[in-house]
Amino acid sequence: MVRTTAEGDVRVLTLDRPDRRNALDHEALGELETAVAEATEPVVYLQGAGEAFCAGADLDVVETLDAEGAGEFAALGQRVATTIEQYDGAVVAGVDGAARGGGVELALACDLRVATPDATFAETGVKLGLFGAWGGTGRLPRIVGEGEALDLALSGRTVDAETALRMGLVSRVVSDPRAVADEVAAVDRGALRELKARMRDASDQQTLEDREQAAFARLVETADFGSAAAHDGE
Known about the structure:
InterPro entries: ClpP/crotonase-like_dom_sf, Enoyl-CoA_hyd/isom_CS, Enoyl-CoA_hydra/iso. The chain is of the alpha/beta class. The protein contains eleven helices and ten strands. It has a six-stranded mixed sheet, with helices on both faces.
């Protein structure tokens, strides 16, 4: 259900269940967690096969769960999202077509969300008497702000790529999101890792600044200033 291929410095992970719009069951979530955990490239690129990015949790599975099973399923999805968020490198979500519910939540766990003009987003759980429980209630307001997050989650409305861009849900709308993964993979990996760690750090301001200083000092020791000067001259 999850295809994985190494393409230079990018590990491409494809949710490959197009007949179900790449909806995720226990097996698919487990495969995704393993694929991310085993990747070693500077960049992981997450995409969906067919006409959708990801329809979220497989509702045929969800409706069979009792309360205990539902809690375990939510915990699995949360663990997968955390594995994505904590990847030792950058994770880019290339969203083409529909991202719904858990599909939005997986994208939120990525470092960059890049959409095609055909991408659409919705947190539709509320229409079913549910809500996304793979970490989205924390990540969505952090990324787009509380007002926009509540608007999306409480209404269940669908937004197009340009609206998602204005909200900050995605960082770019381009015809080829995969090219953005290559762009990120071309930077210095050490700097990439340090930047991600600093921006994800939720410590107090003084601790953040101390860690920022230490990271900068580490990078200065290995930076290729001659290469930077060459790029500036292009």
